[in-house]
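Hi P.,

Sorry for the delay on this. The queue was packed all week, but I finally got your sequence through. Input first:
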Amino acid sequence: MEHLLHYVWKHKLFPLKVLQTTEGLPVEVIDSGLQNPNAGPDFFNAKLKIDGTLWVGNIEIHIHSSDWLRHGHDKDKAYDSVILHVVGEADMEVTRTDGGRIPQLILTCPENVQSHYHELCVADQYPACYPILASLPKLTVHSWLTALQTERLEQKARLITERLKHCNHNWEDAFFVTLARNFGFGLNGDAFETWAGMLPFRAIDKHRNDLFQIEAFFYGLAGLLEDSFLKKGQEDEYSLRLIKEFRYLQRKFEFTQVMNATLWRFLRLRPENFPTVRLAQLAYLYQRGGKLFSRLLEAGTLAEVRTLLEVGTSSYWESHYLFGQTSSQKKKTMGERSKDLIIINTVVPFLYTYGLHKADEGMCERAGRFLEELKAEDNHIIRSWSAAGLPVVSAADSQALIQLQKEYCDRRKCLYCRFGYEYFDYKVTTKK
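Then the structure:
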């Protein structure tokens, strides 16, 4: 039933009467937001008017209001950004972590949506052009995917060029900021980029031979050594040493600003993906991988790239996922699939961008060759296109399809898409 409410909200299939909160305040939905397939609120960046006041924020949807409490959202700061709780039945009031009440809207599912549930789910899952995809000529598919792959690389190159400006055109710094963002693997990507943007690289470089001091820099600037995150019960010898070392480094290099620790997401993550573990891996990589980007430029094969990206941690994190909480002994390495995602989203775009910068066609070609050699990504976008009839073999295919989904399908730019053009031609032909 909750999936139905998601569908109704996403497509704004509202009753003709005026929408109201449970307290009788009128609600106007300007933008229902972007559906979130990961942990966190169900829809991001929605835009509403409640009693004439404009609100921009996130939406959470449940069958019953009490599901809010049952799922622990009242204690999770990630849900403080929710501006409206959409429910099938309102059986209680809901609040944010500070006790502030969240408006609620009871949403009913139209009978025609309920009766055509399966058909609508299929239509919502696949792109509109899915009936003709399997019959398209291979040349049409290949040429369009190749164009989309180039378009995506050029789009990433523009983002890297902007990041370079913020890093005073230092390629190593810009590479590490991008690497850090992608260590967030989507859910913590923004938090990692915010953190990496605060790193005083030249100060850290003075202590590059000492992994513990790098960890002090990393955890301290991440806000994870502050009282707001590290509670008394979590303190141990290691964390207390980190705090002492970070305070010394703060005084030495005269910086005071640290990140707000509430930006880090831990909920619904596997422990291997906790920010605490990923920061330990980045510290290990930073300490071991001086001039990492320069070394990657010289790597001619994927095997060499994977070797340069081998990560580990200090001994403390081999028996911990969080401060002060011992776990079974395990080396915190990175799986092959995760490493390949880092190559796809960090190494390949940087090789391509640097190739453009140096007018080195061979380097751009190497970036494309790596994508061809890597396996396709596995996510909901790729699965939907594959199920609709498109062959997805390599990362070059999956990157092209992600570009297609985000820049054409999600933006309803079907007339600018070669598949969309073929689909409209098919629709016209079948009507005759």
